[in-house]
Design goal:
Blueprint lengths: L1 E7 L5 E10 L6 E11 L2 H11 L6 H22 L7 E12 L8 E5 L2 H8 L3 E3 L2 H6 L8 H9 L6 E6 L2 E7 L12 E7 L2 H10 L20 H7 L3 H4 L13 H11 L4 H27 L5 E5 L6 H10 L4 E4 L10 H15 L6 H4 L9 E3 L3
Parallel strand pairs: 1-4, 4-6, 7-10, 10-11
Antiparallel strand pairs: 1-2, 2-3, 4-5, 6-12, 7-8, 8-9
Helix pairs in contact: 2-3, 5-12, 6-10, 7-10, 10-11
């Protein structure tokens, strides 16, 4: 089956798309990437998405136009990736603008902006979307969903394999070994915390809006890390919380960035970027150390994906702070570093068509497995 995956993450920089062929067992499919494409959001749309995620109030008409604009960019990305319309099904994550994790006071909920009926009509294909809804309804965090798909796509090795995605938010997948006493252990995963999001805010701040991000970590590479403030930040409640846990710009947004900036000021732009890059790495390494201390699990391999792969300062900091792991980027497996999540949602669409349930209970805390996503057929 040919499935086309569409993904726009926390950074809201556009839509990544992948056309992939899946055959065989859902949990261990044969897969081939046929083509990929990425379409950037226009600057005005990107700004609107980010502002809405930070609480910007909109009129009803503005919400409608935002939904339409996001759907149209997803359609453009799908057509750029699959111009002849070979895909049998579309898996589309939509654009997250608010994610509420479950608590004692409220159930979990998540808002992904998309008009699936419009997208199905524009592409004349069935669209599977709203993948988080069933997991949230079953008491789960709703995210991250990708760890179970990492296990299916990348498979197992002789020891624990970790997959780190550094997008706006960083998240980890832990894939059990193929042999030994842990081979029956379920897949694990969680959101670590800020990935690129604080770095992007800092780049925009110090450049007065001229730069959206620190390309190739050029500014961070010239700075000196403030280890004392990182040590202080790592003690915050979210970073001490045990999985399951998920987060987003609701927690690590512009207000959080401004609070951290106030704590380190005065500081040079280079030192600020260096410290935030090291903070991104330190969060992940602390999570892996806690996993070892609490569950006696430590991966022998760390596969890194997402836009943060293009920041060598983050990768250097991860390597310098961790020991005993082989680290490599996901493109070594034939998966472009920014396409991994789009590929996961293509696989989820494949699973939906097969009515194959996803067991996310060990990752999100959902009460049971369920077929994820809602199908919308073209009119």
């Amino acid at each position: 089956m040919l499935a086309l995956g569409l993904m726009s993450g926390t950074s809201a920089d556009g839509v990544d798309s992948v056309l992939a062929e899946f055959k065989g067992s859902p949990n261990n499919p044969q897969w081939t990437i046929r083509s990929t494409a990425s379409i950037a959001y226009p600057d005005s749309l990107r700004r609107k998405v980010l502002d809405v995620g930070q609480g910007l109030p909109l009129k009803s008409s503005d919400w409608l136009e935002l939904l339409e604009a996001i759907t149209e960019v997803n359609s453009e990305a799908a057509k750029a990736c699959d111009p002849k319309g070979y895909a049998n099904v579309i898996g589309c994550h939509g654009q997250t603008v608010w994610h509420r994790t479950p608590s004692q006071e409220k159930r979990g909920a998540s808002l992904q902006l998309l008009q699936p009926q419009l997208l199905a009509a524009l592409l004349n294909k069935p669209v599977i979307s709203d993948f988080r809804a069933a997991d949230l309804a079953l008491g789960g965090q709703g995210a991250p969903l990708v760890p179970i798909l990492d296990a299916a796509i990348l498979g197992r090795i002789a020891g624990w394999r970790a997959v780190l995605n550094i997008g706006g938010i960083s998240n980890l997948s832990l894939i059990p070994p193929s042999i030994g006493p842990n081979c029956l252990h379920p897949v694990l995963g969680w959101d670590c915390g800020p990935g690129n999001t604080l770095l992007d805010f800092a780049s925009q701040k110090v450049s007065h809006g001229a730069l959206l991000f620190d390309e190739a970590g050029k500014m961070a590479a010239q700075g000196v890390v403030d280890e004392s403030i990182i040590h202080q930040w790592l003690k915050e409640p979210y970073f001490q919380k045990s999985p399951p846990k998920s987060t987003g710009r609701e927690q690590f947004g512009i207000k959080d960035f401004q609070s951290r900036l106030d704590q380190v000021s005065p500081i040079s732009p280079e030192d600020l970027l260096a410290t935030l890059a090291a903070f991104t790495a330190a969060i992940v390494v602390q999570d892996l150390e806690n996993l070892q201390a609490n569950k006696h699990i430590y991966p022998i391999e760390l596969v890194i994906a997402g836009g943060g792969c293009r920041n060598p300062v983050i990768l250097k900091e991860i390597n310098s702070r961790s020991y005993g792991m082989r680290t490599l980027t996901i493109d070594k497996f034939g998966i472009p570093i920014e396409i991994r999540e789009a590929l996961a949602f293509a696989l989820l669409a494949y699973w939906h068509i097969l009515l194959h349930p996803a067991d996310t209970s060990s990752i999100t805390g959902s009460s049971r497995s369920a077929v994820l996503g809602i199908r919308t057929d073209p009119p």
